[in-house]
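The methods section describes the discrete structure representation at length, but only in general terms. The central task, working out the structure tokens from the amino acid sequence alone, is never made concrete. Nothing conveys this as quickly as seeing an actual entry. For illustration, here is how one protein appears when written out as sequence plus structure tokens:
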Amino acid sequence: MAQHHDDADARRAAARETLAQGRAVLGIELGSTRIKAVLVGEDHVPLASGGHAWENQYVDRTWTYPLDAVWHGLRAAVADLLADTERRHGVRPTSVAALGVSAMMHGYLAFDADDELLVPFRTWRNTSTGAAAAELTELLGYNIPLRWSVAHLHQAVLDAEPHVPDVRFVTTLAGYVHWRLTGRKVIGVGDASGMFPVDPVTRDYDADLLARFDAHTAGRLPVARLVDLLPEVLVAGQEAGRLTDEGAALLDPTGTLRAGAPLCPPEGDAGTGMVATASVAPRTANISVGTSIFAMVVLEKPLAQVHHEIDLVTTPAGDLVAMVHCNNGASELGEWAGVFGRFATALGSDAGADEVFGVLLREALEGDADGGGLLAYNYLSGEPITGLDEGRPLIVRTPDSRLTLGNFVRTQVYAAFGTLSLGLRILVAEGVEVDTMFAHGGLFRTAGVAQRLLAAAVDTPVAVGRTAGEGGAWGIAVLAAYVASGAADDLGTYLSTRVFADAEIDVVEPDAADVAGYATWLERYADGLAVERAATEAL
């Protein structure tokens, strides 16, 4: 027992020293519903964290966040982080060894020559770019999803929006925050691959496709070359600037945090998800579940055909990845957890939100393998994979279905995976093989439940690590630590030997009965999309 206390005391002393001497690394991610900041030690283990809840707004039929909310949220998250650091370790760090910024991918932030925002931030959630995405996909012979930055820009051109002649810079949310912190208009290759197609050989925007785009849009953009509007592309391990005095004040107006720390290239949440699950090598894959849900499969070779359901993006190191991105993830499940939580409170329970969520998830294991005949659609917004421009959350059942709490919750969890499964079918048909799926996101904090049901949905072993709940903020912190280390090894080697060598990873094999039940449910789900479509037309 004494040895145990001595070890714990030594770890606390080491953590304090790391923080006090500025050797910790800061990672920040602006997710759809939460801005999270985390400090990690030299062993990549989180030392403290902070967060701030925020929500997108639907203004003039556009999903957006005001830029003031970005900076208010970042300051709140960093303040919460510094307070947590002091509470846990008795020290308030004044500097860090490196930092990184990540955010929800894609979308459209357009600025003029004076660096003023021209139109409100258009997030990944908007599905108003159908004409541009279809035209560019045909032109380039490369799938251009609705949410990509170039689709938003080209749609603005097609619609003759008055701001287009004034555009001088287009970036993503991560690219914007990084620019304000460092003064550099750069972007990580993974995030860049959600702006315009990237060539995995050059690890830069695809030159041939840029030339094709420029010829097609000649005279309709304020510049002759699209690349002159886009941020410079960097790969993992490259230093992407340093925190300026202005940038430090934006993060921490108290002046505690000093300028000077190097930053890694800003990345999207897909890239940090790959890092957080060590899924950057061929035949590895990860699934991230949050407001949206997406699967990233690192390819051994390019796909044979263009599929509108499959995005081709890259890892933070620039390797080609097939991405199945669904706009709707676990939000509807979270709404129902809130309803049941309020019911528990009304009964006199003092159970917290996490406890309620855990109880509901465990109850899902009591449900029938096929959900008892229940169907749920988690479509809070449109879903391009299933061809829906808008969403209507639904729970549907037949008179002979079995409405139990277990079946209800299991069906809500299945609903979070349903559209993803339809997209993954295409990769299976292309002959893409995966050894293990790594999963991360808050849904996996309750041990074993969502992991088991996801294994059934993908019919592949699903691994969850100890950082599953930390997600992208931890992933971008690791990328920042990679820069601070000097990046002598390639990213995959760094992750396997320096970050995950001793990681505790729990792997769940797919259960045959669950697989069969989910397959039955998914067929019913695909047939029932007609109901969802009718709801969007009627309501």
Q: What stands out?
A: The chain has a mean pLDDT of 94. Residues 324 and 423 are 6 Å apart (CA to CA).
